[in-house]
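User: I'm new to structure prediction. If I give you an amino acid sequence, what do you actually give back? Let's try with this one:
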Amino acid sequence: MESPDIDLKEIIGILRRQVRLIALSFVVVLVPVIIYLALATPMYRATALIAIDAGESNLLDPREAQSSQSAILNSRVDGEVEVLRADSTILAVVEKGDLVRDPEFGASLGLREKIAIALGLEGATDRLRRAVGLRTAPPRSGEALVRSTIGKMRSSVEVRRRGLTYLISVGVTSADPQRAADLANLYVDTYIERQVINKTDSIMAARDVLQRQTENARLNLTRIEDSLNSFIDDNLARLEAYSNDPSVSRIRRELESAQSSRTTNLAALEASEDAAARSDWMTVAATLEDTAIEQLARERESLLNRLSGETAGSQAEVDLRAALDSIEQNLTQSLAEVQDTVETQLASIAQNEAEAREQLRDALLRTDMSSEVISDLFNLQQNATIAREQYQRLLSRVQDLNALANVQISDARVVSEALPPTSAASPNKRLIISATLVIAIGLGIGIALLNEYYIGGITSLAQLGNLSAARAVGAIPDTSPNGDVQLLGNQILDAPLSQYAESFRKLRLALDTNLNQSRAERMQGGEVKTPGTVILVSSALPGEGKSTSAIALARTYAASGKRTLLIDCDLRKPSIAHYLDANQEHGLIDYLDPDSTHKQLEPFADVLKNLIIVPAGHRSTKPTDQLINSELFLTMISTVREEFDIVILDSPPVLPVVDSRYLAQVADIIVMIVRFANTTQSEFREAATQLAEVAQPGVRLLGALNRNAGNTSRRYYESGYAGYYGEEKA
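Assistant: Good question. You get back a string of structure tokens that encode the predicted 3D arrangement of the chain. For your 730 residues, that looks like this:
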């Protein structure tokens, strides 16, 4: 391409030339997409919206949630998105919705199984495995079915955060719009339930840890209290003597009285419980000194005596047993009431005992005793106080956690439940068709340009001009009668006004114009003008019509009055004499071959008196590039330049052999014949580049599009001369 500027007309021309290829690419891309859209099952997506609270919800202390708001909440929301996507959440949804048995998300037959069933081969694999001594494939386990369901559910769920808000959308895709909405709501409900359960479990786990610590604190407090009480009990008499304080004696007596009363009541409780277990209610009444229990016990004894004299199954016996059951219930209730009273008294006694001990400790600390005794007593009392405070704090925290676990709520709430969608989410026909149209058009244009510049054959002068530095100068029409290429050159004589003859007159004009321009440029550079003009006619490959074009061009120059010489330089496969029905036994190859004994050129005259033709002679059986590059050939070219106005060299094809590259060095202008829609662009570009590299400076390379090329092989010169040419008709 001579200019890097974009030419809109040129682009439109390319598209017009490649319209069939573009249309084919368009159809190839669009038809499968249309079939897919026609057969694809519409899928509906329902979306539920949940909001994450700014802080963890605490109903017992709402202020805690407000104080917990911070910049890290964004990370927390992102974390909840990942929790929603986690396999554990999907598994919980699968279990709660029993999706393993769901026809859409549960286990289903794959395409291979369906084909096997349709062909009656569902057991063929197992039979084959048994035949070769292998175990049959085990059936899919329940775990595998669950994993399969989880995978399908994961691919159908879309969880994402809405921008930088605290909102998370959960979308579920299903073939049924109502099913999609139900599953989306089930998903968020399951997530919220799991969040509450996880929070409760976390609190209960913390409570269990604190309970163990609380029990340890209680045991430690009991040990310290026992140590303090033992110290006071063991040294009470000595401490009382040291103190000389009447209050200490009084407190001591109160303490001893409380201890005695506690011991008595505990003994009474134990004895009453033991007697009640033996149904010895009289002993219970005596132990607890309760007249009501004693009265009920006597009535019970009386009923038992009466019951022993009644007949089993009689009405009297039934009535007595009912009365006995009522009395025993009253006895049990009365015992419980009395025991509650005793336990209340024990609690009061324990409180009095504790207060007495506390007063005794304070009184002893105020007395004038030895520092060693006071120090021991003070340390024990301080340890007891600290242990009591720790125990109370732990006990209070355990109670708080128990209460908190019972009132847990989720930190997320549903702000918009999923509703059945009214339109399918996929396939998005409008988007897919729009994208397909864009892709199809782009692909078609891309393939068209690729075919125009690199792959396809050359079909226009514009395309020819875009490929290299060669100038596209004309197109030779296909006017061969009955496909006989031997008659083409005769049209210059027989039909001088035909389109074929006119195309060569145009080619001659283009050659003369370019020659004049080239010579003018060379004269400005100080070069000497040569008397005759050497025109090289070549092609990239065999069978492109270069020989018939060389004949037609030579006759066109001869008809215009130019002394013209046509030399068949294709020593690999001569054809000029064959086309002109000239039976020449010897030719150029004999003149150039040093081993030949025939050293005379035998040119013959064409029907046009101004045209002389030098045939190539017989077909060469050895490489001919050394003959073309010899001093004898160069001398011959210099000689014929002096005798003729126009010297036309019909050369071998450029790509298969090297001869044309030597011939290009003596040419004043080069014409590349290109077969319509047959010569690939890369082949032409390579041939033109090779010729341009060896041509003399200022020598122009022209391209002519020949529509008159017959069928031929385009193989390169491989495996000998016959493999290179094949059958050539031009």
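You can read the tokens as a compact description of the fold. Here is one thing that stands out. The first strand starts at residue 44 and ends at 52.
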